[in-house]
Amino acid sequence: MAYVKWAFIIIFWGTIAVVLQYSLPQRDIVRIVNTYEERQDLNDWTRIFWSEPDDQSTSLSNRDVQFIQAVRANGKPIVYRNEDTSWGWPLYFKFDTANLYTEANDAISDKDDPDWVAVTHYGWRNEFMSIFPNAVSLKHVDGPDVRLIPWFNIIFLTVFFAIIWAIWVRWRRFRQRRIDPMLDGVEDSLYAAGDAIEERQKGFRRWLDSWKTK
Amino acid sequence: MFGAMRLFLVLLVLQTIAYFALSLYSRGVRRRKLETWWDEKGKQGNKEAFVERGLHVYDNSFRRKLILAVYIVPWVAIGALIYIVNYM
User: Fold this and answer.
1) The pTM is what?
2) Which of A14, A36, A87, A95 could bridge B7 with an S-S bond, Cβ 3.0-4.6 Å?
């Protein structure tokens, strides 16, 4: 029973952790090398990793998506998709895809004269599922070693866990005050009933015994 | 615009649930506090009337109206996010 309980707890918190890891913003410092558009087929289950920029896009099985190609400071490539999130999940309210595409094109630089930018994005890059993180905004930075402090994530996670903790503490107090005494009461009356039955049996046994020949 | 409508409707439903839950919870806390005050100070007179009076003061208080922030804060946050993400 304890294993089942822990399995549930781990699955529950694991799901929350995965959703947060996917949706919270992260920043990479990269050098943008190119941008392109490509027709994407969107009719299998990986649809959940692409946005719904407008109402029609929910019924389309394929459409053009913009991509931003970049190289990290360590030389490894990273490709972002560039899509509106509009009013959908995750709640970035990104409507300026075309503007971001323009900024990205403006920031293209080569190895000899690198123009480092911090790209804010959410999502995952996975080569096997062909999914890409969605770039949300970009900002020019001085160099590849600039220290970026994720203020938004710090505040968001603090508030999030504070709320969870507040609800949890109140729920536990409520349980101790209302539900546990009730369960104890049920237990007590069960024991009382058991004792009463035992008492009865003793009486019955005594009466039976009285018929036995001594 | 359907996406926006869907978001607004879901948000409105969630806000209403949160508003009523918070209102009931907050009033319950206040009632318990009033009862504890009464018991600790050992005042004379009618305890129920004291609690009712205290709750009436609470119903008209600013603190009570702060719960309306449940309706306001998310809209402000959405407005701020739209500005930061798209125009900054």
Assistant:
1) 0.78
2) A87
